Amino acid sequence: MTTTTEHPHTWTAKALVDGLATDITVGLTDAEVAERRSEYGENRLRKEAREPAWRKVLRLLADKMTLVLVAAAAVSAGVSREWETPVVILAVITFNTVINYVQESRAEESLRALRSMSVDSSRVRRDGQERYVERTELVPGDIVLLEAGDAVPADGRIVQAARLQIAESALTGESQPVTKTADPLDDPNLPIGDRTNMAFMNTEVTRGRATMVVTGTGMSTEIGTIASLLGTAGVDKTPLQRRIDQLATLLTVIAIVVVSIVFLLGLLRGESWSELLLTAVSLAVATIPEGLTAVVAFTLALGASRLAKRGAIIKQLAAVETLGSTTHIATDKTGTLTLNEMTVRKLVVAGHIYRVTGSGYSSDGKILSDSEDALPDFRRTFLAMSLCNDASVNDGVLVGDPTEGALVVLAEKGGIDVVGARANHPRLAEVPFDSDYKFMATFHESSLPGTGPYRCYAKGAPGVLMSRATMVRTSEGDRAITDEDRDLIATAVDELAHEGLRTLMIAGTTLSDLPDESSLFDAVDNLAIYAVVGILDPPRPEAREAIATAHEAGIGVHMITGDHLTTASAIATDLGIEGEPLSGGTIDEISDDELRARAAHFGVLARVAPEHKIRYVEALQANGEVVAMTGDGVNDAPALKQADIGIAMGITGTDVSKGAAKMILTDDNFATIVSAVRDGRGIYANIVKFVKFQLTTAWGFVLIFLTAGITGIAGGAPFTALQILWVNIIMDGPPALALGVDATEPGTMKQKPRSPGERLLSRNRVLRILSLAIVMTVGTILTLVFADDIFPDSARDPLFAGTLGFTTFVFYQVFNLLNVRSDRGSVFSLQTLTNQAIWISLVAVIVLHVAVVNVGFLQDLFDTTSLTATEWLYAVVVASSVLVVEEIRKAVVRAVWRL
């Protein structure tokens, strides 16, 4: 830790302040702050170094398909003095590189924008004045003032504390807030969780107030140490990246084989080797889908941008596809499936259960009884809730612990002026909540009639307070508790737990004397039970529908929570989550093999620790599943790293969890995850559409040239080099990019997830591509052979047959673009009209091709000649055969699917 003192938790407050050359009441001067900032730097976690622009460009140019194109351009330039072919190839390389660069940069900017959500100001004391400063400006020696609701902006030693508790779950995994004091500690090697006089960066103050002197900033904090360790972990390629690599290798091999065959056949016919080499190079370019990398980047970036608008930030473009192939989602409950707004739904008093209306932290609501009897007087019960409480709620805004906030709201619904009650009954002492004894108690002066001079109020786990109770409150007053009373209360608690409600008991007692500090704990005894409350964190309204959608899509949903198993199971049932319940204790007892065998069948994981999460993810992955995992704390980072798609919370998540994740939810909403799955599936489908479209064109070229090479049709070279590039670049550019914005097909979320091992080119897809390529080949070859016979008036032009065959092949691509948009849906459905970009690109391509055929200088460049209206119509009719064939196949598929 970079400070002027070591082991600050062992120093007295005065000695530490002196050692840091600061002053508790005055703080640092502006000059001292500037000097220390130059020494220690900004108070921020170090971000991963940005990849320099030149290195990013080199990485993109090192793509396999791009390297083949570079080689093709070099060969073309070396054997020909013409500039057209190598320039066009280099233009393609430039286009691909620019698209990839821009889209990767866009994703990075989106993530940087998300980081602005972090807490960015803190209240400090400088030059004797209190002021708010940017958290990045804090330096060692700064005096920071903390109160309930604040995020701790740096590591620091507490020098003054008043009933201070800090939630450190984001750092240590401890679920309950930790009580903090200003007392020095003796052991210099205490674990972080036991340093009770220290506050750590990115933890939260849940109760009380404190003055803290900053001892560590930025990467010199404890959370910075963890972040630096996580930063050394490697990242595997996503399934899409692996499939793209496989496809690139396969197509490169095919290109080499086909080009070699065409080249050798030409040599055998005695053609010029230089002309053959130019044609072979152009055919190689056509055989390889050089636009694949660009279209994948473009499509993924569009999806990432769309997801960002819906509440998700994708850190790696290819992670969108990974999410689209997800088979299981392991999600936190609080804030993701629920609103993270604790609300009291049931109130149990004297064996009677009352309903409470309203939700969140609004005091609008009522307390209702199922009987016609008048409600009893709850004011003393609500007074206890108000006083044994550190939270405050102002205009629906909570400051403090959510559970305590729920009690404040209930008291307000019952007519209590919480602020006034606290002023009239000042707190004299307290026993802070601790997970070991599971209750909190406060001591107050009492002005209530019929009571002693002091009152003790307590709230906590029903079982714990029940064991300390000797009385029970009824409508007639307090009386001795009976076994029947205990049974009634225990039954009511079980009923609330089965309804998914967290239970909390409220109790109190009268004291004749105020206990001293050492006997406060023992004084919480002989209690009278006032009430039991059932608290619910209401499910998000959209959560049930999102879970149902996930199940319909064949995705397993697993809720992970710190709640007790009974409560968690009830909540899961209410949300529609299916499967067996599992507790953290049970996970410890079962073997890896058993967990692996049963992992997919668990719907609820309750009372789990961080190590349980990562073990569960590993068990699912061992069965070949693709797992999405949510998390928000530092302790979640290993599981987020292990998951195929780690999802961090943008609102409640720490910087470390965001750094470990591949996706960040800006709204912490489970429905956004399901929406991302849908978009991921749609994006993958659009990429497959492009592959089918471009490979049909490429393999059509291959079959046409092989046929011509073997038979000698059109001299073995039916199209010129630039004609090949024209079709490959102009045709496969704008229309293919337009496929990237195609809407997700209806019914996408009614299909099961793809197998993680599915190839981009499955057997069925290959057969479909080949069949359509054969249709194109037959139509184009027949046109080249019989063009002069069909149109004798144009036969005198030596360029006519080639132009008509060229034009026919172009229109094949127009119709095939419409074919690939759906595997089942007809081109003549309304869905066809939803993508304006495709229609605009098709019109543009047709207009450009008309120019190539009819404009003088383009005719010279592309070796074309003008066509009559009848000849244009012929090309369109012949090319439509590919549409007819595919429509027949789709009709058969739809008929079979309906059976």
From TrEMBL:
One of its GO terms (molecular function) is ATP binding. It catalyses: ATP + H2O = ADP + phosphate + H(+). It is found in: Cell membrane. Its main location: membrane. InterPro entries: ATPase_P-typ_cation-transptr_C, ATPase_P-typ_cation-transptr_N, ATPase_P-typ_cyto_dom_N, ATPase_P-typ_P_site, ATPase_P-typ_TM_dom_sf, ATPase_P-typ_transduc_dom_A_sf, ATPase_P-type_domA, Cation_transp_ATPase_P-type. PROSITE patterns: ATPASE_E1_E2 (PS00154). The chain crosses the membrane at residues 247-268, 280-302, 698-719, 766-787, 799-818, 838-859, 871-888. NCBIfam families: ATPase_P-type. This is Cation-transporting P-type ATPase. It comes from Gordonia amicalis.
